[in-house]
Amino acid sequence: MSEQALPVIWYVLWVVLWVVYFVLDSKTLGLGTLFPFLARNEREEAALQEAVGPFWDGDEVWLITAGGATFAAFPLTYAVMFSALYVPFFLLLFALFYRAVGLEFMSKLKDPGWHNVWRWAFTVASFLVILLLGVTFANLFYGLDFDATGNKTTLLTLLNPYGILGGLTIVVLALLSGTTWGAFKVSGELEKRLEGYAHVLWWVALALFSIYMVATANRANHLLVNYNQAPVLYVIPALALLLLLLVKPLLSRGAQLGAWLATSGTIALLLVTGFVGLFPNMLYSRTAPEASITAYQAAASPLTQTIMLGAAIVLVPVVIGYQSWAYKKFSERKIDVEEAKGYGA
């Protein structure tokens, strides 16, 4: 295999790993963020827990694999990326920890104080995870502050208008994913309430998505180079918008699974739009574009990437098979709110 082809193949795999993680975990993070505002009693809380309980930890496998693939396939990207984004990634680790512990612990004891502490830990941590990831990836597409002399990126420089807008867009799409998934999984009044939230969130998501696309064309126009060279690529953001437009009519027809799939497609294609514009760069420097790091510069040795590719060909289908089984096993029934026992009880 050509040595020039390996970095491209691994760039595609790197993108796939991040996109699959965002798509799968957005529903849990979205439901987690709205958790105290959706459930009106313990039974409804238990039903919402059961709606995401069998899936969230399996979904995180893709996050861990994406981080591992960055380290092994693109060590230079890993070094610069995790140095420049040290603070948000450190906060992300804490948020992931408290998201998991909150979900696991809130039903362990009947004490109201215990329950409230871990319920809000689950909620706040879920919001922080998706916000931090959204702001981080919006900035990866926008460009980080580094040059040949070193990193100048700080948490404050990440909180620029474009980064915040991108973060909020991802947050609202995750909320839409969570409410459509929740409506698909539960029944009764809670199902109707989730549908009501989803209808409102769709308007917010459509507005933010549209503003973010306009902002990308005006503030991150380096991403348009690949699109202008191959205009057929514009079909990617166009499909993302089309899928988002489909969500509301699907919801109105009661096609909740279809609405969730369309929302997931929007999230996936929104991220793919950024990654396609970014290529061949993996880390774009907005302060010194000549210092940007490409996939070719950041790639590990051909032998390393070849061995990893063999491992990926064997192991990725195993992960896909396990998760496909889990989704098929636990996605076939509606959760009866009156019979829900919760997760980790």
TrEMBL record:
<protein>
    <submittedName>
        <fullName>Cytochrome d ubiquinol oxidase subunit II</fullName>
    </submittedName>
</protein>
<feature type="transmembrane region" description="Helical">
    <location>
        <begin position="303"/>
        <end position="325"/>
    </location>
</feature>
<keyword id="KW-1003">Cell membrane</keyword>
<keyword id="KW-0408">Iron</keyword>
<keyword id="KW-0479">Metal-binding</keyword>
<dbReference type="InterPro" id="IPR003317">
    <property type="entry name" value="Cyt-d_oxidase_su2"/>
</dbReference>
<dbReference type="GO" id="GO:0005886">
    <property type="term" value="C:plasma membrane"/>
</dbReference>
<feature type="transmembrane region" description="Helical">
    <location>
        <begin position="227"/>
        <end position="247"/>
    </location>
</feature>
<dbReference type="Pfam" id="PF02322">
    <property type="entry name" value="Cyt_bd_oxida_II"/>
</dbReference>
<feature type="transmembrane region" description="Helical">
    <location>
        <begin position="196"/>
        <end position="215"/>
    </location>
</feature>
<feature type="transmembrane region" description="Helical">
    <location>
        <begin position="162"/>
        <end position="184"/>
    </location>
</feature>
<keyword id="KW-0472">Membrane</keyword>
<keyword id="KW-0249">Electron transport</keyword>
<dbReference type="GO" id="GO:0046872">
    <property type="term" value="F:metal ion binding"/>
</dbReference>
<dbReference type="GO" id="GO:0009055">
    <property type="term" value="F:electron transfer activity"/>
</dbReference>
<feature type="transmembrane region" description="Helical">
    <location>
        <begin position="76"/>
        <end position="97"/>
    </location>
</feature>
<dbReference type="GO" id="GO:0070069">
    <property type="term" value="C:cytochrome complex"/>
</dbReference>
<feature type="transmembrane region" description="Helical">
    <location>
        <begin position="7"/>
        <end position="24"/>
    </location>
</feature>
<feature type="transmembrane region" description="Helical">
    <location>
        <begin position="117"/>
        <end position="142"/>
    </location>
</feature>
<keyword id="KW-1133">Transmembrane helix</keyword>
<keyword id="KW-0349">Heme</keyword>
<keyword id="KW-0812">Transmembrane</keyword>
<dbReference type="GO" id="GO:0019646">
    <property type="term" value="P:aerobic electron transport chain"/>
</dbReference>
<dbReference type="GO" id="GO:0016682">
    <property type="term" value="F:oxidoreductase activity, acting on diphenols and related substances as donors, oxygen as acceptor"/>
</dbReference>
<comment type="similarity">
    <text>Belongs to the cytochrome ubiquinol oxidase subunit 2 family.</text>
</comment>
<keyword id="KW-0813">Transport</keyword>
<feature type="transmembrane region" description="Helical">
    <location>
        <begin position="259"/>
        <end position="283"/>
    </location>
</feature>
